[in-house]
Records
---
Amino acid sequence: MARHPSIADDELLARLTGVFQDLGYAGASLVALSEATGLKRASLYHRFPEGKEQMAQEVLSAADAWVSEHILDPLKSNDPPEVRVRQMKKALNQLYSGGKQACLLNMLSSADVDEGPFSNHIRSAFKAWIDALIAVLVDAGFEKELARQRAERAVALLHGSLVLSRGMGTTRPFKNYLKDVERELLG
Amino acid sequence: MARHPSIADDELLARLTGVFQDLGYAGASLVALSEATGLKRASLYHRFPEGKEQMAQEVLSAADAWVSEHILDPLKSNDPPEVRVRQMKKALNQLYSGGKQACLLNMLSSADVDEGPFSNHIRSAFKAWIDALIAVLVDAGFEKELARQRAERAVALLHGSLVLSRGMGTTRPFKNYLKDVERELLG
DNA sequence: GTCTATAGTAAGATAGAC
DNA sequence: GTCTATCTTACTATAGAC
């Protein structure tokens, strides 16, 4: 028996994502990953032969794909800047569960001080996000260097609001961020 | 022999701090802590009988003391608001080594999802910081609710700039933050 | 594809010599 | 106060039955 997956790939990755978001890479033990997914450790190794590192890599890739579809692509659309930013806003609220979930990029940075297995991935994820925002701001009429500064600031503020939300045990900082992000960028 | 400490308490705590900042709580193994301090594991247990958790607690307390002396007290002084903020700026640059070091509060949050051993400490550290900034802003003439929002935003932006600096492998976000923090708060 | 059982390794922690 | 040596537990990973 059990010749078929007891959990779909999407759901599996979502559960793993949650564990890495909550505990970071070092803190995400196979026991925790196993309990979160309902799969025994050996079953996890069947799906991810290279173990925990592969799980984190695939979790990162899945997050990348989600962000591309729900955030970056909309930001690159031909809609007016305010519309594009508002779409990002909705997606961010989903991505971080209204401020209850930490950012994967922050939680997986812990693993690599100098050059870890996720450094390149994380760096390019941040860069892609900032670049997409720069394009929106340039479209909105901002001079390029100012656009870069504002975009970088908006991404920093987002991640800081998540750090603060987690640290203070309230989603208020994140919610305030969402409320102000449009003005923060375009105002 | 070896009847006297081979490393002073201050230096010891500083080294431990660095490890927790780089690796987080779960990632900071006793081997890493031992190598960073030059003390064997058994010697670390002699100084911290309750082990790793005690080390992290004392590291947090030492950071608290440093922040109180170099940031919070100056913020509570009678100097003009701009002077107080400029003092904070200098201290922040030291505390985070110009953006090369992550924030301890962020790195130790990973350990506790719901209520971990550091939650209260972290929460009150954030709160103390924000409250001190609120007082400065109120002194500068801002209405209280606006002061709270600006203070919280400045703290979030700081932590986000550190997340971004680490993730992108450049201290630029942090340096930009420092450059703008006075205007961000009082402008 | 999932499981139980188990190997192998690294982690946290202690005992006792100097 | 620091060390070597050791213990115990937890973690990562694999083997093989179903």
Note: Chain A has a mean pLDDT of 96.
---
Amino acid sequence: MRKSKRTRLKAAGWVVGSVKEFLGLSEADTALIEMKLALSQSLRDRRKKQGLSQVQLAERLQSSQSRVAKIEAGDPSVSMDLLVSSLLILGASSADLAKTIRGGEKRKGPHAA
Amino acid sequence: MRKSKRTRLKAAGWVVGSVKEFLGLSEADTALIEMKLALSQSLRDRRKKQGLSQVQLAERLQSSQSRVAKIEAGDPSVSMDLLVSSLLILGASSADLAKTIRGGEKRKGPHAA
DNA sequence: TGACGCCATGTCAGATATGACATATGATCC
DNA sequence: GGATCATATGTCATATCTGACATGGCGTCA
């Protein structure tokens, strides 16, 4: 994704589904954003399932509460690397991540991780 | 992953499989690296399958040949975001990415290596 | 031999992400 | 009300990533 788009995205708070062609996003752009949103949701679910607060998770990640909040909020300032490694630290397997990433698109069994 | 580790990793050129505990990598660290390597391999395969040179791919990605080389080489300086968006631009679907990410680890069908 | 195409590797300025901090909101309890 | 906890949001210095450029290796062809 190019910087110009990312900038507009940041300005708009990237509301994906709704403002797709409004921002002139490519298929690749939206796909990436959707993957990230799915991952952030997954992280929040995992954290809650483990009964952790954002502060506690931040400790495990060796980060800060504010960053955890941004991760879960799908903030554009959060990289995929951070999302994925956070999930891994919370115990997600590659298969779990794969399921999450595949997203809504043709999922098999009941819902995902 | 922490910076200290990334630094050592960079220094070592991150040879994953072999120097795992030598660098004191956690499970999450190695899992992330393996995912990235799988993605970079996948990118190279896709590019070749489409008969593109690194220069041509760089044009599509609006990047440079050297970065494409680093992406495919699994260089530590390449983020997951770049890997994924590159693959998406080459036409990979979320499902394709999911398959790649799931990696060797317990794939269904006939047994994998 | 030289010229050319393809890929690898090093470097660097500028762009982006990160952790940390401050601060704000809302909920709950006393 | 006040205190406490969980979460959100803004800012900022520093760390990291990115594209671009230079250069070198390697094979091929004339």
Note: Chain A has six helices and no strands.
